Amino acid sequence: MTDASLPTTPHRGSLIEVDARTRRRNAAEKRFRLYGLVALGIGLAALVILLTSVLSNGVSAFRQTSLVLEMNLDAAVLDKKGNRDPEEMKKVTTIGYGKLIDKALKEAVAAKGIAIEGLTDKDVANMISKEAAAQVRERVLSNPDLVGETVTVKVLANGRIDGYLKGRVTMQSAERDSNVTPNQLRLADALMAEGLLVKAFNWDFITGPDASELRPEASGLGVAILGSAYMMIIVLILSLPIGVAASIYLEEFAPKNRWTDLIEVNISNLAAVPSIVFGILGLAIFINFAGLPQSAPIVGGLVLTLMTLPRIIIPTRAALGAVPPSIREAALGVGASKMQTIFHHVLPLAMPGILTGMIIGLAQALGETAPLLLIGMVAFVRDFPAAPPEGFFDPAAALPVQVYNWTQRADPGFAERASGAIIVLLVFLLVMNAVAILLRNRFERRW
Amino acid sequence: MNIAVLVLIVLAISAAGYVLGRHRALSGAQGDRRNLHSLIGYYGQTVFLFASVPALFLLAVWLFLQPMLIEARVGAMIQPSDIPEGGSATLVMSDVRRLAEGLDAAIASGAVTEEALAGLQAGDAELGSLLSDAGVALGAELRPNVLEAAKAYRSDSHGARLALTAAVIAVSLVGALLSLLRVSPEYRARNVFERFVLAALIASSLVAVLTTAGIIASLLFESIHFFQLYPAKDFFLSLTWNPQFRGGSDLGIWPLLWGTLYVSFVALIFAVPVGLLIAIYLSEYASKRLRTFAKPAIEILAGIPTIVYGLFALITVGPLLRDYFAQPLGLGTSSASVMTAGLVMGIMLIPFVSSLSDDIINAVPQSLRDGSFAIGATQSETVRQVILPAALPGIVGAILLAASRAIGETMIVVMGAGAAAKLDLNPFQAMTTITVKIVSQLTGDTEFASPETLVAFALGMMLFLFTLVLNVLALVVVRKYREQYE
Amino acid sequence: MEDMRLADRTASARENKITARGVQVYYGTNHAIKDVDVDIADRTVTAFIGPSGCGKSTFLRCLNRMNDTIPICRVEGRIEIDGEDIYDKRVDPVQLRARVGMVFQKPNPFPKSIYDNVAYGPRIHGLTRNRAELDEVVEKSLRRAALWNEVKDRLTSPGTGLSGGQQQRLCIARAVATSPEVLLMDEPCSALDPIATAQVEELIDELRENFSVVIVTHSMQQAARVSQRTAFFHLGNLVEFGETGQIFTNPRDPRTEAYITGRIG
């Protein structure tokens, strides 16, 4: 042990001079730091690109092009017998109304003196959405006295014309598109100049029902939003009590043995089971075995509940566990039973944490798509479900599934709709998460 | 009787029980609540629970079982000859249900009386008009057995509903009465009540176990069904996936498995280094200000639903990769591709890897960092040679969890990977995955009992097993890791 | 205290390795070390004693700039090693720490093999040219830490599998492997049992032949057993610094006397 020098006693220079090796090491340090910064940049850039892509594609869905027409509701066509009986007037289909609207537009074009070479009658008629006739018919049937009058109607323009105003359709693309002609676009320009073609906020997109394959301009999210809301109600009603009860048992009462260990492993595993497997469960158990109806919010709600439960139990247990033992000891010390201690003291103190976890779990459930595809929520549903509880059993759509549905349709107008629906979905999620964060910051206690 | 009314009746009985229970306890104690064993509320609550819970439980079980029992009974009345060409027993059963509803509606509207209905025959013209008035359109000709089955369905349902009402009210009353009789000042109402609550808590925690059991049962049951129709050997060994409407399909899992693994691989290759470096940068280098902004921003990525990523793949990433990489390089013309789905899935997994790794890196004790710095290591040397090796098991666990997520991810691959089942190496080709095919086989128009549909359950079974193994492995690894530093 | 320091200098037989003048340390707004002057002699064991929270560990961590890793910590004054200011802007703490090693209160072996634990420092500083030299450094370091005979047959097994005392000696070997000139020890025995403590104390006495050792301890007996010079800290002040024998038998400051007789602390 007397040997003072190691075999290769390094050369000890001055501390002030940084030696070459240290310089190299510091360069490596800088590089490594840069890698980290680049990775962070990639992550943040991905977020920004993702959000801007969806926003830029979807914002236009909230504005919709309509035609404003002076229209004569010809009694000879709409009410042949002349007794203004809505029952009898129902016999006139949308075809009859469609012809009247076509005529009104043609007259308007003529009256404004718009002349475009080669513009056919068919071109003019096709400026109008197929949905327009139904819009007018509904209005007349709800107010039969309008028949015979000349009224100002605002009807949807065709999806391609809408696309032209939003820049999706151009003269070049119209040349190649069998659904629209350049002359129609010129007519659209002229009508816009005359104030007959207007773009306004599209309330129907948020409140209206879905529309068929050929009418992207008329499709809305109303049924989907209602369906999602129904499912969220079911998830909330079922998973809050069950989740909290299960968490209380596991955190406060469960003895440490193989059974409770199994339950815990089971819960952590369930939280990571692919969501589509829950869809298979829903199809096999709730629809095929229990005979619940397809496409119904009740089935979606049950499936999402089972999926959300483990995701709620984990934060709920954490919230319960974060309440310090001193609180429990204090309550037990004055002679409260364990149950009283938990329900009177621990649970109220853990409540902000539990609610935060609950809302985040609900937000996840709201965005879940895959399991809903399997239980028939992809079906085309135009009718609004009834009020709950009966409405839980009526067919409905769901917000994320509606997005998927629209992406599967051929008309490019639906791509805009899908992105618009995503914006609605993200707004809901944003609100829910904001509430959760607010709740946490406001009420959560650090012990 | 309406179910909602029945529930209200039960609740009314229970509420009455609550009041009576309190009253009885108080009068037993000569009006002095200090003489009671428990707080007075507990006496009422126990009566309330005994009056309501068993009755409502009975109601739920009954409602769940009744349609199945009745359908089994009624289904027996239908002969094989009643099933039309190309139809199935389930379709006929749904006709029976519709018919029964139509008859109910007809009676409710007063168009026909019960007695008249009993005499109606399948051929009667009156029946057709009755039903069409009730909004039920008859399909092809109505077979006598089907009509009889519908009548039996009706009467069974009505009988069962009546029995249900009687049974539920009886159970509620008996429960209320029995628990009322036990109320006395010495009665340990709180203990009874708490045992009841504890049972409810245990039952709730078993829901998770039941869910797993339900998943396994439904997957197993229909998979067995599938393997009875389609040889297991072909499913596991065949290299082609080619389902046909008219039978004779090739349903080999390999092309799907390959697509699944390929997409997941691309996703992990992207997400693991990026996520890990983000975690390291945020936990070891970033200033506090950058961290408070960047950490939640990255976590937003985790809160975005997968359908959004799917749409992103479909309308942005797919066309971009096709126009700027695949086509110029002559590698493919499809916007849906392994690369599209893999890249977008990679973005989705970044926060997953980074936040799990962040937790794990933070769990490495400060003393190890100090030890390394004290020897004169730079920060990156400390990270690479001390912290990462120490955190390795935890990070492996995180990667396993991310892999499990990638394999089970559905919407991104449905919208971004394509539908062509291929064994190919070119990442710019459209390929398909297990989850895509589960969706397409179960949402298609094929008959449920055909192998083309049932194969989805076998695929689901494989998916469940893969992810189960990964999840449990990850769980064990992470648990071991956490114990090491506790 | 001024006169006291003069007395120390005459008592010192060896040249000074470290000289600290007017050192102030702040944690945020908390003034943790107040105007401390200390000279650490070469190849001597210097003990820092004092009640907990007196700043002895903080001051120790200034000597190899470990306080740099704490963002809110600020050091003023001048600390020199062989006449060079270690807080000079041009000094890279990485190079400094290779020359001023440190051993911590709790044994903190890396989760690597025993060999890799010891080889870590030589590897990152590039002190050896080949594997054979590295083997030699590892063996020498383990011998110096009096651990070689216990672990020579299991150099590849994890360092975390050793007993507490062995772990601490492994950490000493790890610190010694970069051939530092100064070895800082922050209560190196406080997490050890008495037998392991005795072994480590014996080791410290041997290390004195090659290094100057600075040890922080809360045990006055330990300071008396292992050190030649002792500094007594109290509330961030250096109260008394001198020959260990003198401090323990004939303290000049009443606070020192109060501490060693057990009235404060």
Tell me about this structure.
The complex is a heterotrimer of chains A (447), B (486) and C (265). Chain A is 64% helix and 5% strand. Chain A has 447 residues and is mainly α. In chain A, helix 1 crosses helix 19 (413-443) and helix 11 (222-253) runs antiparallel to helix 16 (338-367). The longest helix of chain A has 39 residues, at 20-58. Mean pLDDT of chain A is 86; it is low at 1-11. Chain B folds into two domains: 3-187, no CATH class; 241-481, Orthogonal Bundle (MetI-like fold), CATH 1.10.3720. Helices cover 76% and strands 1% of the residues of chain B. In chain B, strand 1 (241-242) and strand 2 (250-251) form a beta hairpin. The two termini of chain B are 60 Å apart. Chain C is α/β, with parallel strands linked by helices and 265 residues long. Chain C has a domain at 16-110 and 182-260: Rossmann fold (3-Layer(aba) Sandwich), CATH 3.40.50.300. Chain C has a six-stranded mixed sheet with strand order 6-7-8-3-9-10, with helices on both faces. Chain C has a four-stranded antiparallel sheet with strand order 2-1-4-5, with helices on one face. Chain C starts with a helix and ends in a 5-residue tail after the last helix. Chain C is built from eleven helices and ten strands. Chains A and B meet through helix 1, helix 11, helix 12, helix 13 and helix 14 of A and helix 2, helix 7, helix 9, helix 10 and helix 11 of B.
